[in-house]
Amino acid sequence: MTHGRFLRILLPSCAAAPYTDHIEHPTPLEAVALASASPRRRELLASLGLHVTVIPSAYDEAPLPGIEPAELALVHARGKAAAAAAFDGLIVAADTVVDVDGTVLGKPGDIAEARGMLRRLAGRWHVVHTAFALRDDRTAARWFEVVSTRVRFADLDEPTIEADAASGDGLDKAGAYGIQGFAATLVARIDGDYFTVVGFPLAAFAASLPRLGYRLLPARGPRPQPSLATRETAP
Residue 233: pLDDT above 80? Predict the structure, then answer.
């Protein structure tokens, strides 16, 4: 297991489909399809000014023993992209794995398991690997990449662990925590890209787009704010 300050693994697919390091006139990217039900990844992509369409993927994210954690994230991301429904444009898939000394912490099955994961993370460093896979059905181009960030948890007392686990907030997150929520108070330090820990490395994603013939530009003008739905009640 590599414990560098910031680990970035580039594993492009050269055989499955063509891609290029330089395209003279890249196309501005305005919309993507996300092969994931993760609201966090949808929000992160939308924060770049992209219109995000969520599409289904038939990929079965089964356990794969014997694979290094970073490679496991990549295998799952590639599988999700390959099994995604057809889309006339760029498809994005991703997977996040929490790595403690080479052991994968996935999503906890219940509060008791979440409690055990938080105890294991308390007061020590671990690594978060997020892999993303891009599939362009217009050009048959592909790109796969893993970005990894080290995270150190604070020393946690038992009441804090119990309260965070009991909240249920970490039950749908690898390692039983989401750094963008209350668990931000549990984190003492990170070395690397914050958005990798949230679940999608935005800078690496943007840097990879020219290889597929796209470029990312800031949206013009103020972004529209989501409207709040109201429910009418009978008098």
Answer: no
- Give, for 126, the enclosing helix (H) or strand (E): strand 125-136
Active site residues: 95
Tell me if 114 is assigned to some domain.
Answer: yes
CA-CA distance, 119 to 71, in Å (whole number)?
Answer: 25
* CATH code for position 38: 3.90.950.10
Domain containing residue 171: 6-215
**Within-domain flag for 206:** yes
Residue type (1 letter), 98: V
Report DSSP letters for 37-66, one per residue.
--HHHHHHHHTTT-EEEE--B-------TT
- Summarised one tens digit per residue, pLDDT across range 108-154 is 999 999 999 999 999 999 999 999 999 999 999 999 999 999 999 99
3-class state of residue 141 by DSSP: strand
Number of domains in the chain: 1
DSSP letter assigned to residue 209? G
